[in-house]
Structure formats: structure tokens, C-alpha cells
Amino acid sequence: MKRFLLSGLLMALSLQGTAQQQPANRPTLVAGIPVNYQEDSVGSYVLPDLLKCADGQPVTNARTWTQKRRPELLKLIEEIQFGKMPPRPTEMSFRVFDQGTPAFQGKAIRKQVTVYFTRDTSDYKMNLVIYLPKAIKQPAPLLMNISFSAYNQIIDDPGLLVGSIWNREGKKVRSDKPSNFGKMNVDQFLEAGIGFVTVYYGDIEPDFKEGIRYGIRGKYIKSGQTEPAPTEWGAISAWAWGLSRAMDYFETDKQIDSKRIALQGASRLGKAVLWAGIHDTRFKLVIASISGEGGAALSRRNFGETIKHITDSTRYQYQFATNYHTYGDKVTSLPIDGHTLVALMAPRPLLLQTGSTDYWSDPRGEFLSAVAAAPVYKLFGESGPQPTDTPSANDTSLLLNHLGYFMHEGGHTVLPTDWPHLIAYMKKYL
């Protein structure tokens, strides 16, 4: 009964004070599939009950969640949505080719590391750049960012390796041109006493349909296979897997506090960091930015992007397990939803960062997802958004909850003005 009451309340909230006209300059048809942006056309839905085990046992305490319900839900996410990741490679190795160079006028120590996923070092590898605050004398906490660009493209530092990236034509080219995603201000993390590390996602797995032929998934595909089996990993799982391999390195570096690592990524990489944090509990904290459909937003809400849009063969089908593709027309039978991903982070800190005009990613759906997941955080005595909360743009009242939510005024991006808020969250929980 509680499940239906909560779902009804969420529906009422989704309509309360948020009715709006179809936003201007937004696609109303994507991949031949209609797109809805009106709250009064979202439709009714009932969310899967997070606090009831598969055998009907109610979850009334943290122990039952941790030992029984969480493993059930984790298995569903693996087998249906993102696909199963392989374990840490036995032949993985690290090469620290920049072992501690002063950077940023002496404020930081810079390291550059190549992580080799296989014994053959000519392929299947990723490059990390790490900045540690020089003023800190003990092992430093880190923000681990996964980026759409090579690190030399987003950081002003002449000592950085010029690597390679995948262009729009699916070809590997030198990363010697400016990025369209702007620059990262590393100083702001150093001043907060937090180190910064970033990796180019294409080092792990290229972001296009044929990328499996070149990325880490291709190493694991069985002989004779042309595509993954229904429960095998998509590209999002590959990016998440790569983040865990970075953590493997952090655990070897005595200047890094591997117990205090935060993850951050945006859009499809917001999905990747959320899944990485769920799957690998070594990560202390996750900031999932504008993760939208397939991330924190509720799939059962017919608003903006839907499962059918995102898994269309002309779009991002390759990012998910093949099983997920079958739910485009039957989302109500999906035994999980965005609130499941949010809840699986409990009790570790999770911040959902969204944009008020990012209708395609459904910021309202992310908020309602957090509301639905908050009872799981409550099992551990931690706070999250409540049904009576009504977030508005740039409102910080929900920011510092253990399960936090922050929505900037604007669209599908991480704004420079967002970072002070994200840093405040990290300072509280790291």
C-alpha cells in the first residue's frame, strides 16, 4: 500500500506548480519518436518498491537492505540495464611517467600515469593526470572526473601529454586542438584542499556503435561474437569499469587517500559515474551531473528523453546492455527505475546536479527519483529530499543533504558557477 501512496504523491508533486508550455526550440520528434515536455501529459505510473525484497519480505533496517535487497537490485541493474563488468585484469600495470612535477605556480604537484589494462602495452590503456595540493602534507582526497576531452585540451598546463581522441568520423586523431567543452579551473580544487584527476573517456571505450571493435569491450568479446550477449556490458559499464581501474592505481599511491575519492561526470558520463559508484563501493562520494534518462531521472515519467529514444539503433543503443533495448515499449514492466540507481548509492553521499531548462534530461524526474530513494537513506539515518520540498533554480537548501540535489538556472551543462556548490558538497563529505 505504501508503494502506491508514494507513487501517487510523486505524481501529484510532478504536476504541482510545474505545468508548462511545450518549450521553444526543443525537438518534438527524435528518431521518429514523439517527445513530451508537458507535465500534464506525463501519465500515471507506479514505481517498483525499493523496500520489499523479491520474496515479499519488507526492508525495515539497514542490515536487510545491505545483505539482501541491495544485492537483488544490483543484479537487476547489471543484467537488464548496463551489463556485467569483468573483474580487475590480472595483467594490469601502471607507468608513472610524470612522478611529481610542480605545477600552477607551485600550488600543485602533477603526476601523469598510464594504466595498462593488458600485458601488451601497445593497446587497451588510459592516461590520467593527477594534481595534488602541495600545501597538504598528508594523503590527499581527490575528485576523479571523467571527461569528453583529452586532459591537455581542458587544462592550461604546458607540461601535459598530448594524446589522442576519437573524432566524429570514428578516427583517432591527436588531441592538439582546443576542446568544445571549455577549460577546467583546477585551482579551485587545490584551494579547497582537494586533488583533481581526470581521464578521457575514449581511452577506455570509444563513444560510437562500432567502438566495441577498438575499446576495452572488444578485448573481452568471445571468439565468433559480433556483439555482446544480452547481459554483457555496454559502453557505460566500460567507462565505469575504467574508473575502477583508476581506483586500483590510487590504492598504490601513498600521496593519495584512496578512502576519500569523489567521482564526477556529466550527461552520459553522469550515468557512468553513478554506475561506477554503485558497483564499486570503494568510491566515497558521487556527483552525477545532468545524468537524465538511464541515469537518475525516472524512466516511467514520459517526459523528455525516454528509454525508447535512448536505445534506438540510430542513437545510443551500444551504451546499454542489450536487454535494456527491449523495454522501450514496456517501461511499466521494468523492475527497476532511476530511483533504484539513486538508492543503491546508500549510505554513501550522492549529489544530483541538474539544470532548470534541461527538459530533455528531466530535472524534475531526477528530483522525484531522489524523493523516492530517500527512505533507503533514512534506513541509515541519512537525509534526502522530502516530498514537501519544491526545488527551484539556484536554491541550495537541498544541496548539502547526504542525498543532495542542486539545480542551476540553465540547460544541459555544468556551469562554472556550479563548481563552488559542488566543492562545498565535497568538503562536507570528504
TrEMBL record:
The lineage of its organism: Bacteria, Pseudomonadati, Bacteroidota, Cytophagia, Cytophagales. This is Acetylxylan esterase. InterPro entries: AB_hydrolase_fold, GCE-like_dom. It comes from the Bacteria. Residues 231-381 form the 4-O-methyl-glucuronoyl methylesterase-like domain. It comes from Spirosoma aureum. Pfam families: GCE_fung. SUPFAM superfamilies: alpha/beta-Hydrolases (SSF53474). Keywords: Hydrolase, Serine esterase, Signal. Residues 1-19 form the signal peptide. GO terms for molecular function: carboxylic ester hydrolase activity.
